Amino acid sequence: MKLLAIVFKKELRDMLRDRRTLFFMIVMPFFVIFLIFNLSMRLGMDMEKRAQEKKLRVAVFSAVPLPKFLETLQSGDRVIIDSQVTRVEINQAVNDGRLDFAISFPDDFSENLDREGTTEVPIYYKASTSENERALGRIHGVLEQYGRQLLIQRLEKKNLPVDFVEPLRIDDRDVSSIREKIGQRLGGMFPYFFVIFCFLGAMAPAIDLAAGEKERGTMETLLVSPATRLQIVLGKFLVVTASGIFTALSSVLWLYLIFRQSKAIPAEVLSGVLKVIEWKSLLLLFSMIIPLCAFFAAILLSVSVFAKSYKEAQSIIAPLNILIIVPVLIGIFPGIKLTALTALIPILNISLATKEIIGGTIAPLLMAEVFLVLFALAALGLVFCAQWFKRETVIFRGV
After folding, report:
1. Which domains does the chain have, with CATH numbers?
2. Are 218 and 340 in contact (CB under 8 A)?
3. Are the CB atoms for 351 and 195 separated by under 8 Å?
4. Residues facing 123 on adjacent strands
5. Per residue in 321-356, pLDDT tens?
6. Burial state string for 132-168 with b = 16 or more CB within 10 A and e = fewer than 16
7. How far, in Å, are 3, 6, 142, 301 from residue 9 at the CA level?
8. What is the secondary structure of 41-105 as a DSSP string?
9. Which of 256, 252, 277, 278 shows the shortest CA–CA distance to 265?
10. Cβ-count burial of 392 within 10 angstroms (0-12 exposed, 13-18 middle, 19+ buried)?
11. Can you tell me the distance from the alpha carbon of 80 to that of 83, in angstroms, rounded to the nearest whole number?
């Protein structure tokens, strides 16, 4: 045990001397979270603002004058009526960007109104233009308002109240608590930071403490020490795991600070989120980081031991980033919940359990299953890494 502690301290000291490792552990989480959080919030708000404030160039085609509709369309002073484009040029004008929208009332629109029928009014636009796709709601709103005006006129002719055409009014009442709603929204974001930064935090020291030592020629010095191969592996493994845990915790801290300082989030929303996330939930979330980092540490250390050089270890580990993201993305899909089956799938179970924990709906038995699966995989990974480290052909590969 004493030798294990000595190896651990030695590896920890070497890791803290490496600027690349410190960058991955402390600096990079801040920049990544800051960029993701602020850019996504600002881009979303800016796109929505531009879509609402943009002056839309709209062409209206009708066989009869529609003064009330045109008045409603131009009421906000953010619509320019284009009368130069003909009906046969609609598709070309929209594709070329000369028109943002084209509203084509059919030639029999007036006759349909007289017969009290229903008319289909197509709207032409280019969905690949993000601003126009968001501004489509403005055009829909104008048409719906005009349609209500026509409906009221019909009912007045027949001396009928407006309620006559609305025999049933649907009143949706969501019984989900605020915590459950926030859990479903934030639960999809938290696993990104947990999984990605657990992996990145463990990656740099894992590569340096095995493949890096091979390049520096310090592996042989460590092997001739009184410490056994198992103690050396355990010492390196604990350091890599601790690095992943520290990076994940620092990312959560940065996320909390950036979240608190963000001016893009309304104060009432911010206070509601902070009230929902309890200490009990945070402790459960943090407790999942330990077996997850141990699992990543065992895999990354095994790859690093096998690699001939630092560069080769990086090239092998790089594709693993994609494999790790896929289960997290699957966990965001609607309808996928934490069950006895999904709790067996590593990383996916973390993503699903996070949503359940934040929402306050986690089942104790499923939570225990997630822990058992993660600890079992971490133990298997450590056994594999230890067996890998005992092979001379692997340790001195490339020497």
Report:
1. 2-37+178-395 (no CATH), 53-163 (3.40.1710.10)
2. no
3. yes
4. 103
5. 778 888 877 877 777 888 889 888 888 888 888 877
6. bebbbebbeebbeebeeeeeeeeeeeeeeeeeeeeee
7. 10, 5, 70, 17
8. HHHHHHHHHHHHHS-EEEEEE-SS--HHHHHHHTTTS-EEE--SS-GGGHHHHHHHTS-SEEEE-
9. 256
10. exposed
11. 10
- Residue 378's alpha-carbon distances to 44, 295, 346, 347, in angstroms, are 39, 4, 11, 12
Nearest in space to 100 (alpha carbons), one of 121, 66, 130, 68: 130
Whether the CB-CB separation of 81 and 64 falls below 8 Å is answered with no
327: Cα separation from own chain's centroid: 12
Integer Cα distance of 93 and 54 in angstroms = 18
Rounded Cα–Cα distance for residues 134 and 45 (Å): 12
Beta-strand relationship, 79-81 and 56-61: parallel
Structure tokens that stand for 128 in this block: 């690949």
- Tokens 């030639």, located at residue: 107
Task: Say which residues have a Cβ less than 8 Å from residue 362's Cβ, sequence separation at least 6.
Answer: 284, 338, 353, 356
Q: How far is CA 55 from CA 50, 99, 121, 213, 369, in A?
A: 9, 11, 22, 62, 56
Contact in structure between 98 and 121 (CB atoms under 8 Å): no
State phi, psi for 59 to the nearest 5 degrees.
-110, 135
Vertex 183 angle, CA 51 and 366, to 5°: 145
Per-residue pLDDT of 28-73, as tens digits, reads: 666 666 666 666 666 666 666 666 667 788 888 888 888 888 887 8
User: In terms of pTM, does the model score above 0.70?
Assistant: no
pLDDT given at position 88: 83
CA distances from 309 to 304, 312, 379 (A): 8, 5, 26
Q: Which of 202, 241, 185 is nearest to 321 (CA)?
A: 202
Counting beta carbons within 10 angstroms of the beta carbon of residue 66, is it exposed (0 to 12), middle (13 to 18) or buried (19 or more)? Answer: middle
Q: How many CB atoms lie within 10 A of CB 74?
A: 14
Rounded Cα–Cα distance for residues 69 and 55 (Å):
18
Q: Closest by alpha carbon to 289, among 332, 331, 318, 246?
A: 246
Report for 2-6, 7-11, 101-105: range of highest mean pLDDT: 101-105
